[in-house]
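Chain A, query sequence.
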Amino acid sequence: MNPAEDFAPDAQGAEETGASLPGTLQPGAAADPAAAPASPEPIAASDEVAALQLAPDQYKRVLEAALLAAAEPLPLSELRKLFEEDVGSDTLRVLLDDLRADWRDRSVELVQIASGWRFQTRPEYQPYLDRLKQEKPPRYSRAVMETLAIIAYRQPATRGDIEDIRGVAVSANILKTLESRGWIDAVGHRETPGRPALYATTKRFLDDLGLRSLAELPALAEIERVMDLGNG
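Chain A, predicted structure.
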């Protein structure tokens, strides 16, 4: 199960919609400087933000609409395409951090994960949403979980490495299960006899855990709790 699909209705958010943004910003539109309203206070102490052609709140509303409508997390490179002017990555981060603060006290939060930015349900509300699901998320065996943990913490790892650590043979079906779930992938081959495949976790794995990088990887018990996995 994908916490992006199974435990967190993220900002993949508007349920696989292909919704587009209504209306288009016109940052270059001519205006009478004398008639223009006073510029609002910048949302952060940033020269780049203060120099934006539109009020910061207008940029935030566009970012919010795009992220809520997106079926997948959006990286900064994609978010920059929303605007006619060249909005720098640092400026976008300031705007996104401010937007995240706007949603601080709501049941949905804006988070940054490995693939980009997305809205997702806060964990404490997920049990209520789970009651609406027609099917229960898949549960995996201890062997599958142990294999995933070894790859996550020892990557890249070969099938032989996994067997040495577990002390038992690793079925090809276990690796296929993890590959089909999108959590691991073969990233190369070890230059030893037979050139065994090297396995590593994917961005999908990090996304499902709500992480930005492997440096944030929690203990195995936390992985099981978040992903609702266990003996099956």
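The first helix runs from residue 3 to 7. The CA atoms of residues 126 and 176 lie 29 Å apart.
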